[in-house]
């Protein structure tokens, strides 16, 4: 996969054929080159990065050849239930191989319900190391993932033991949540919390600034998903984090 992929910016609902997409009322970017299509929400954290590598074309041009795609990379930031519905619609309307970002989901549940999905990534959560957790059912799917990551200057770490929210997103979300509990209890200022974690345990970023880099909405979404699936109180979202993430 080279850097000459084409970007299709769309501020309206994706009209591919999905009642679900109409209901979500989300805008998407479509990128295509030859037989590959990438779908990403237009306010995704990687929007700016992707825009540096892919040229713009019209939505109509991309969708007019929709039936010919051999590979679809889905980067929609959805939780398990909506992701399953979205992917079921996606695989119903294409014969292409599908790889999906499952950062906010229970990947095993998604893959069990969507057996035509051949690979998964956790691309939504910013990582200072530029590493991305991946899963592939076969070598061809892994190559598709690695090629795509190379375009956006990231590298993959393959996992076969999938967890809810993968490994890194789940762990960093818990750390950030604990930092917001500390803010809630007035134990320290945001600056002091960040300094303590950077200098005390050698983190590259403090948890407050790390959360800002990722996007608090995604952290809240993942913690809510974890709490609903596991019923483990460790994943209960702090009030302060809910407020900051606009998740009242």
Polypeptide structure, described:
- The chain is α/β, with parallel strands linked by helices and 248 residues long.
- It has 2 domains: 6-158, Rossmann fold; 168-244, Orthogonal Bundle (N-(1-d-carboxylethyl)-l-norvaline Dehydrogenase, domain 2).
- Helix content is 44%, strand content 19%.
- It contains 11 helices and 9 strands.
- It has helices at 19-24, 47-53, 59-64, 80-93, 107-113, 139-151, 168-184, 190-200, 207-214, 216-230, 239-244, and strands spanning 6-13, 27-33, 36-41, 55-56, 71-74, 97-101, 117-122, 131-136, 155-158.
- A 9-stranded mixed beta sheet has the order 4-1-2-3-5-6-7-8-9, with helices on both faces.
- Residues 165-238 form the 3-hydroxyacyl-CoA dehydrogenase C-terminal domain.
- This is 3-hydroxyacyl-CoA dehydrogenase C-terminal domain-containing protein.
- Pfam families: 3HCDH.
- GO terms for molecular function: oxidoreductase activity, acting on the CH-OH group of donors, NAD or NADP as acceptor.
The geometry reads as: globular
Give the distance, in angstroms, between the N- and C-terminal Cα atoms.
Answer: 42 Å
CATH architecture of the largest domain: 3-Layer(aba) Sandwich
- Give the fraction of residues assigned to helices: 40-55%
* Number of separate helices: 11
Annotated CATH topology of the largest domain: Rossmann fold
Q: How would a crystallographer describe the biggest sheet?
A: 9 strands, mixed
């Amino acid at each position: 996969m080279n850097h000459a992929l084409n970007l299709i910016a769309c501020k309206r609902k994706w009209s591919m054929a999905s009642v679900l997409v109409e209901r979500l009322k989300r805008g998407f970017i479509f990128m295509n080159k030859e037989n590959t299509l990438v779908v990403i929400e237009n306010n995704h954290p990687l929007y700016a990065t992707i825009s540096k590598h892919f040229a713009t074309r019209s939505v109509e041009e991309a969708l007019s050849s929709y039936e010919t795609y051999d590979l679809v990379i889905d980067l929609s930031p959805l939780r398990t239930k909506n992701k399953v519905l979205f992917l079921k619609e996606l695989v119903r309307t294409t014969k292409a191989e599908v790889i999906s970002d499952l950062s906010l989901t229970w990947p095993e549940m998604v893959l069990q319900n969507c057996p035509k999905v051949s690979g998964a990534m956790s691309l939504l959560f910013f990582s200072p190391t530029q590493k991305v957790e991946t899963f592939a059912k076969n070598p061809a799917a892994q190559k598709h993932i690695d090629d795509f990551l190379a375009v956006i200057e990231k590298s993959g770490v393959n996992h076969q033991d999938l967890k809810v929210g993968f490994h890194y997103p789940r762990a960093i979300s818990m750390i950030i949540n604990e930092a917001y509990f500390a803010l809630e209890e007035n134990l320290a200022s945001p600056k002091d919390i960040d300094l303590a974690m950077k200098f005390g345990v050698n983190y590259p970023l403090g948890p407050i600034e790390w959360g800002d880099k990722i996007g608090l909405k995604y952290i809240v979404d993942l913690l809510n998903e974890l709490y609903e699936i596991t019923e483990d109180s460790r994943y209960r979202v702090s009030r302060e984090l809910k407020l900051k993430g606009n998740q009242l």
